[in-house]
């Protein structure tokens, strides 16, 4: 069955891997699955046709036959559950890999989202710098804990998994802040993720959209 | 195999359902599973013994034989995957229920966490009210979209699922803000969740801890 995902017609980051479709593209590439991309404008994302696919008016969505999914975590987990390459076979190891997916999305990413909200929504406020500093302290607590857990390991729990895919994607989101630089093992972990051929293909496919090369 | 979870020795909310162990207790009760609770102090949560179970030093954790899990979403999903009562049998419906779990944790809860951070961490700042108002506007956008999707339905996607368990738990987190009152269908949805016998048992077991009745 054909897999179709949605992505930004014009990504706010210029197609540098920060839009959430990168996470889904990466998972599809790890699993060796072909997919089609339908680009949507910011206007279209707020219309009924798109809201029927994604109640919160965002991208990506995922369609495969009768199945319509939203939420990147759910889409990546669906791919990982149905295809080899993203989750270990052992039942307990599989549960732990899924735990790292949730940790990325519900423990590490929320203060990052808060930081972006502070940058973009409270941009004109005189107290922006003070707020950003408080938020970045909270992000640093999470990064310190993650760094302590990772230690010298290549991946969070043995072999590369969907948990690493999601955590690396979430770390990518704050690389431009400079906060990662204090944790060389996390910076190296992210670099290992980005060096994977599947990530490279995902990145290049997303970048091509912005460069006007998407067919 | 015995299931053991951890919970706050002294919950910040006095045991009124807001600590994340409630979500796990609720899932265990829906699945009809017995469990033991080990209480941990805030000091103990930062020590190596607890960090070995939970790298981010939080509760709950979940132990069952050799399996050690953290992250509420992952624990609830693990329970839901291995026992009846929390996920539909149909594969597509199951994927959609899991999507609602992720939507609760990665789309609806993050601005709520931001609100709590603003209340507790920036309490002494003169710009707190202004920041809270901006955050509450963002929460209202999510609640409005969720309300539009739910409409007159009882649950988010057909029968009650782990997706509803998680979404109701996330809505519970902001009830005290008064923000839910603008969306009567969401308030009724939360009330339906709270009326479930499994939720009542989970709530009472957690409340008993704070009342000093935990054995």
Q: What's the number of domains of chain A?
A: 2
Helix content of chain A: 55-70%
Bin the strand percentage of chain A.
5-15%
- Could you list the spans of chain A in which at least 5 consecutive residues all have pLDDT below 50? none
Radius of gyration of chain A, CA atoms, in whole angstroms: 17 Å
Largest sheet of chain A: 4 strands, mixed
CATH fold-level name of the largest domain in chain A:
Glutathione S-transferase Yfyf (Class Pi), Chain A, domain 2
Major interchain interface with per-chain residue totals = A-B, 48 and 49 residues
CATH architecture of the largest domain in chain A: Up-down Bundle
The overall pLDDT of chain A, averaged over residues, is 94
State the oligomer.
homodimer
Main attributes of the structure:
homodimer, 215 residues, alpha+beta, Glutaredoxin, Glutathione S-transferase Yfyf (Class Pi), Chain A, domain 2, 4-stranded mixed β-sheet, 9 helices
Topology:
2 copies of one chain form a homodimer.
Chain A: E1 3-8, H1 21-30, E2 36-40, H2 42-45, H3 48-51, E3 61-64, E4 67-70, H4 72-82, H5 91-121, H6 128-150, H7 162-172, H8 184-195, H9 197-210
Parallel strand pairs in A: 1-2
Antiparallel strand pairs in A: 1-3, 3-4
Helix pairs in contact in A: 1-4, 1-7, 1-9, 5-6, 5-7, 7-8
Explain this structure:
Two copies of one chain form a homodimer. Helices cover 56% and strands 9% of the residues of chain A. Chain A has nine helices and four strands; from the N terminus they run E-H-E-H-H-E-E-H-H-H-H-H-H. The model of chain A has no long low-confidence stretch (mean pLDDT 94). The longest helix of chain A is centred in the middle third of the chain and has 31 residues, at 91-121. Chain A has two domains: 3-85 and 198-210, 3-Layer(aba) Sandwich (Glutaredoxin), CATH 3.40.30; 91-196, Glutathione S-transferase Yfyf (Class Pi), Chain A, domain 2 (Up-down Bundle). In chain A, helix 1 (21-30) packs parallel to helix 4 (72-82), helix 1 (21-30) packs antiparallel against helix 7 (162-172) and helix 7 crosses helix 8 (184-195). Chain A has helices at residues 21-30, 42-45, 48-51, 72-82, 91-121, 128-150, 162-172, 184-195, 197-210, and strands at residues 3-8, 36-40, 61-64, 67-70. A four-stranded mixed beta sheet of chain A has the order 2-1-3-4. The first copy, chain A, has 215 residues and is of the alpha+beta class. Chains A and B meet through strand 4, helix 4, helix 5 and helix 6 of A and strand 4, helix 4, helix 5 and helix 6 of B.
